[in-house]
Design a protein that fits this description.
The protein has helices at 15-20, 28-40, 44-49, 59-71; strands at 2-3, 6-10, 73-82, 86-95, 98-111, 114-120. With 121 residues, it is an alpha+beta fold.
């Protein structure tokens, strides 16, 4: 299977490593890519685990995210810029037969000795 975050790589050689062991994530960009793949695969447990504890979605929001991510068709991810603690990206998806995108500059920090998504800037 190709990796959702980068179709030139296999999932087993890319995001699967992060999904199985979040401590294997070495940079914010790798974490962001693994989170995109988790959205594509509706891996809500990983999305929760990779989210900072102070901004993590509630259980109700978790269910809403799961419902939403299963209702859209993910198209591709473009990483525009990556710094020490931020990643700017565009994630494209179809919803209700319309192409949409999420354009975000995300902030990442370390918590419990691994990278986590903290917030959008």
């Amino acid at each position: 299977m190709k990796c959702p975050c980068n179709p030139s790589k296999l999932y087993v050689d890319c995001c699967k490593k992060a999904h199985q062991n979040i401590h294997a994530v070495a940079t914010p960009e790798i974490l962001m890519r693994s989170r995109y793949s988790a959205f594509v695969m509706a891996n809500i447990d990983y999305l929760q685990k990779s989210h900072h504890s102070t901004t993590r979605p509630s259980n109700l929001e978790k269910k809403e995210i799961l419902t939403w991510t299963k209702s859209v068709e993910w198209v591709k991810l473009d990483v525009l810029e990556s710094t020490e603690n931020t990643v700017e990206f565009k994630a494209y998806f179809y919803e209700n037969e319309s192409l949409n995108l999420i354009h975000e500059n995300s902030f990442f920090s370390k918590e419990n000795d691994h990278w986590v998504y903290q917030s959008a800037l």
